[in-house]
Amino acid sequence: MNTKVTASAKEAARILLKNDLVAFPTETVYGLGANIFSESAIDEIYRVKGRPADNPLIAHVSNLTELVILVKRIPAKAELLIDAFFPGPLTLVLQKSRYVPSNVTGGLDTIGIRMPSNSVAQFFLKECGVTVAAPSANLSGRPSPTTWKAAKAELNGLIGAILKGDQSQVGLESTIIDCTRKTPVLLRSGAIGLERLRKVIPEITVRASNSENTPKSPGQKYRHYAPNAKVVLIDHPSEITDYSKAAFIGLDFPVDPGNAIIKICASIDEYAFRLFDFFRECEYNQIETIYCQRVSENGIGLALMDRLIRAAHG
Ligand code: AMP
Ligand code: MG
Fold it and tell me: Are residues 168 and 120 in the same domain?
């Protein structure tokens, strides 16, 4: 299949509505979208990515009226989160309606809903006129693409189109909150940190990090975010003794890195923004070891450490 790269949201939407797959920009990472009501297009997402069938997709909406068809009910606490954080990098897990094909949610009776704030994503979703189901636009287990070029490197020839946009502003996947229980639970950390969430719902709990097989968030049990190089976490770049075929990303300057590839970030936000793109740059340069500096787990730091730990264990 020839993959069309286009800057036209209208053209990308036309391709999606022909039941083809379209990679599109969002503020978190690039998504790989299909019409949520097309079972064959949804199957194609799993096939193209090599994604396990029990790893659910996220429903991307441009308008809250779409929820009427997608979910059974919106609990009061979910409404508070919607008021505070939609549109934005937050996914809410709600009870799924019977109208959504079960392959979208990996057979679960719940569904993740997100309304992206990225303007190109919003244009695209409006042009589609249907809810778009999408995981990240990478092959299963790999780092998520944060640029259209990275989406192309992963999926060229396998999907209908790539909608061009800027580099994803956040650079990490959305925060996910399970709103189907009395007390909402953080299933995956993201740009909207626990501190901000607790200002709206003080009692939010965090899913125990060792419960990898919790059925509520099945996708989290799989290999994730791993580049073709070994990822090693360190507290400070002074721990690096050998820079041959090695690279470093973090907040502090290494003492004597020679001409190694290094990325010093001015903040944890910038670190999150650059991480996955840096992984790809290292792959391109055939780096064998990527040293990543640990950060404190405040704000987006919690999400960044989650991705770093998973990448290191990949
Ligand atoms: P990705 O966009 O590639 O990060 O994949 C979407 C992720 O969202 C999945 O791997 C799950 O962890 C999570 N997710 C989507 N729908 C649900 C759901 N109904 N319940 C729990 N987690 C979900
Ligand atoms: Mg993903």
Answer: yes
